[in-house]
Amino acid sequence: MEVELSSLAQPIRTRLTPRLRSFKEEIKKVRRDLTKHVGQSDRDQLLGSHVVDFEVASQDQRSRLLHGTERLQESSRRMDEARRIALETEAIGINTIETLAGQREQILRTRDRLSTADTWIAKSQGVLKGMQRR
Hints:
Elements: H1 2-6, H2 10-37, H3 40-47, H4 54-133
């Protein structure tokens, strides 16, 4: 586990180092307790031919650690992808808001021009009616 830990990136290594130390201390404690409470012959009687293979346990822990690392990398990749999509969405939203603001200004200018034209038409109608009466 130490070799695997040393090959990981610094943030992950920093996070997992305390766990490794606690595992080592726990193993030492279990070994001390085992030798204190059970003699060698009692241990053989108790376990028989089924002696714990620490190499197999170490491989199992290593495979679990590798699996966890793969899951973490996959999650990081998904987070990066989600962030990229969010930034793209934000850019599209900003572009849409700018377009709508431009269209709003155009509509307001058109309304003002129509209002001015309506005023001139009303004056023209008044002049025409006056000319018609004469």
